[in-house]
Predict the structure of Putative enzyme.
Amino acid sequence: MLQSEKAILAKGLYRAYNGTIAVDGISFAVEPGRIFGFLGPNGAGKTTTIRMLTGQLAPTSGTAYVAGCNVLTQRTALKQRIGVVFEIQNLYERMSGYENLAFFARLYRVEKKRICEVLEQIQLVGREHEAVRRYSNGMKQRLLIARALLHRPQVLFLDEPTRGLDPVMAQQIRAVIVDLKQQGVTIFLTTHYMEEADQLCDHLAIIDRGKIIAHDTPKLLKRQALLNLRCIKLTLHDEQQITLCLDDRKDNKRLCELIEADHVLSIHSQETTLEDIFIRLTGRSLVQ
Ligand SMILES: Nc1ncnc2c1ncn2[C@@H]1O[C@H](COP(=O)(O)OP(=O)(O)OP(=O)(O)O)[C@@H](O)[C@H]1O
């Protein structure tokens, strides 16, 4: 397939900082209009990857194409085709939401009516003339997404878009993300929340120590893990609950002993979550 047919194509992307390897030769592709989740523990290389894919940091070696542009040699065209929302919020707090957008619309030479379109997309209509400092964190995050959408990017990079938000606000952001996907925008999303990744992403890559260690749909990742991780949950007569892995010899022995001693009240199969898979693969939890 041609590189321009992919929304994102990374080939052997590698970046070191003074000898420290941050991203260790990763390759992956994202189809247009999909939500791609990029997961990893702290220091795994997520931000470095985003910075390379958005043309802010040159790879030490390897190449990447985003929205058909080479991230190293076509940075001007790249900027016009992508939107980026980083975790750090940089809004003009004294200005209204509308004024913030109008400022950037002038900068990008985007027509004014586009401001109303993005306000509607991120559901801020009615609150757009209030000062940003009175906005909730969720509203500020939505405004940042609106700002990144002004120039109609094909690919949107969202770095931890729901971090620190309460469940209602987080759900509003997720609804916006799903809506954008339906409009054909490709989303590259980093998140610490496994349920969010499971709910939103068409594909997931798990990065650890600079390398992609798993890459698939959430469903297939869970199915593979289930094959490798046959676990059951026991409830004992004293109401204690324990999880045992059928592939572990010690656990098998314990299971027989508990049954023989008639300690077991009930046995249930244990559903594997993406969090289980992540811990198994990286030895660490995503939630710090
Ligand atoms: N400017 C820099 N100079 C030196 N080392 C760096 C620099 N930026 C990142 N690193 C190192 O590169 C590795 C990957 O960092 P990166 O910020 O990409 O990880 P991350 O997955 O985004 O982490 P987090 O979830 O904590 O933001 C880490 O070991 C980090 O210490």
